[in-house]
Write a structure and sequence with these properties.
It contains 5 helices and 2 strands, in the order αααββαα. It is mainly α and about 100 residues long. It has one domain. A two-stranded antiparallel ribbon has the order 1-2. About 10% of the residues are buried. The structure holds zinc ion (ZN).
Length: about 100
């Protein structure tokens, strides 16, 4: 899955309507926060099986979950991990 295909997918009307259905199913609440007894509005629809790993499940409602951005970052620690570490180090040094 290359970047162009990925962008095409996220821009597609099919994905947009599928995303809406998932949010509606989950009452527009983060399904991971609910497990911790927190009610957080969901702003992201997360692929349980990553889109890149299994594009055939990209529109499978069972593979989609409404989450908030902070939970989503936990689900994808590979995103911006390096930057965060560096930031934390410099902060620690300042203290
Ligand atoms: Zn959450």
């Amino acid at each position: 899955m290359n970047k162009t295909n990925r962008k095409k997918f996220y821009d597609s009307q099919t994905w947009k309507s599928c995303r809406k259905l998932v949010l509606k199913r989950d009452n527009y609440l983060c399904q991971l926060s609910i497990k911790q007894n927190k009610l957080t509005p969901a702003d992201i629809v997360h692929h349980i099986e990553h889109f890149e790993d299994n594009p055939s499940r990209a529109l499978d409602m069972d593979n989609l979950l409404s989450v908030c951005s902070s939970c989503h970052n936990k689900e994808h620690p590979e995103k911006g991990r390096k930057k965060d570490k560096r930031r934390m180090k410099s902060r620690r040094m300042m203290i």
